[in-house]
Amino acid sequence: MTQPAIFLHSVVKAKVMGDAFQPNVVAGHSLGEFSALVAAGAMEFGDGMKLVAARANAMQKACELQPSTMAAILGMEDAKVEEICKTIAGVVVPANYNCPGQLVISGTVESVNAACEALKAAGAKRALVLPVGGAFHSPLMEPARAELATAIQFTPIVNPRCAIYQNVDARPHTEPARIKANLIAQLTAPVRWTQTMQNMLTDGAAKVVEVGPGNVLQGLFKKVSKEVETVAG
Fold first, then answer.
1. Is the pLDDT of residue 134 over 90?
2. Residue 137 bears catalytic tag
3. Does the pTM of the predicted model rise above 0.70?
């Protein structure tokens, strides 16, 4: 399964880095929020792996209930994408605020396709339907959110060694109950990564270490600030 494999890869890389990885704050994009919590000491690895596997299964079941998809919208301001999505019949919402000028929308196949046409007509540079299994981070994930909520509530989470900026509000958190509530809300709420990066930089982050497969997040940070130092873990 893809989600547990990515989680394992990220956690192992952080562990291998040892004392070289001593972050002042952490954050993770969607699934990455779970590995960030383990890296910050808020969650044990075994508990994190169980949650990630449960999350993947719950999301797959939700995807099978209704045909749904996602699309990347490039070259348009977030507020304009939000405005146009509200005019489309059915379910289509902003799902991933990846960086300025790059926002992923999520919803039913019919509504996402209609939104893509409307967004291109309104001036979006590109509107690309993505090869994904469903409408992640949208109201269509409500069955998965409800299923995962119990598992998260019964998973031990303690105060992390440093604050974690969470997807649902792009703010730093250390209180276990709030971390759990935000993890539960994450499945149906948008990933506010643009806002997370902006807040981390405003709060003083000067160096970003990406721990995991690839270098996508380093590229996204550079879209927000060319001055920030980014390195692979």
1. yes
2. yes
3. yes
